[in-house]
Structures are given as structure tokens and as C-alpha cells.
Specification:
It is a single chain. With 102 residues, the chain is mainly alpha-helical. The chain has one domain: Four Helix Bundle (Hemerythrin (Met), subunit A), CATH 1.20.120. The chain is built from 4 helices and no strands.
Length: 102
């Protein structure tokens, strides 16, 4: 890890992303009429670089999966959309576990 990048800041950033993904997935499961807004919140949390740029490789994968999930949902394929979003959330969760192990 680069000097000056606080691990707690990185973890907090990833927890925020994880929370927005969770909200979006729940909105998809419940057919919430604001699901597009919820996915937009998750996408917005993924904009910009991570603190210190340390997590960019992971976040690039997550951004792609969320983008795909939104596209599949717009095309009416809920199960595939949910799959993409769950994988994105799992990637973030596993990365958080690796970071917290120090």
C-alpha cells in the first residue's frame, strides 16, 4: 500500500459502494418503481477514483458489471441483471475482507 493512503479511508469508500449496491439489488428484487434511481446511486458511488487509486482494478470490474446489470434490466432480463449486480457486490465484499485482514 502506498504511503499516505489510510486503509480506513479505502475501507469506508468500499463500504459505501457496497451499501449502494445492496440498496439497488433490493430495489430490483422488490420491483421498486425507483430501481433505476437506486442503480444510478450505485453507479454514482463508483465514479471517480478510489482513495489513492489503490482499488481501481477492482472498481473497474465492478463498474462494468453494474453497467451490464442496468442494461440487462432495461432489456427485461431481471435474473441476469440481478446476477451481474450480485457478482459486483461480492467482488466488493471480498476485496473488503482482503483489506481488513491487513
Amino acid at each position: 500500500m502506498k504511503a499516505g493512503v489510510d486503509p480506513a479511508l479505502r475501507i469506508a469508500h468500499l463500504l459505501r459502494i457496497n451499501s449502494y449496491l445492496d440498496i439497488a439489488i433490493n430495489a430490483m428484487w422488490t420491483a421498486n418503481p425507483r430501481v433505476d434511481t437506486m442503480i444510478g446511486m450505485a453507479e454514482a458511488s463508483l465514479r471517480g477514483k478510489s482513495p489513492g487509486g489503490e482499488d481501481e482494478e477492482v472498481l473497474a470490474n465492478v463498474r462494468d458489471l453494474v453497467r451490464e446489470g442496468r442494461a440487462y434490466l432495461a432489456g427485461g432480463d431481471l435474473s441476469v441483471a440481478l446476477g451481474r449486480m450480485r457478482v459486483a457486490q461480492d467482488i466488493v465484499s471480498l476485496h473488503l475482507i482482503r483489506l481488513s485482514d491487513g
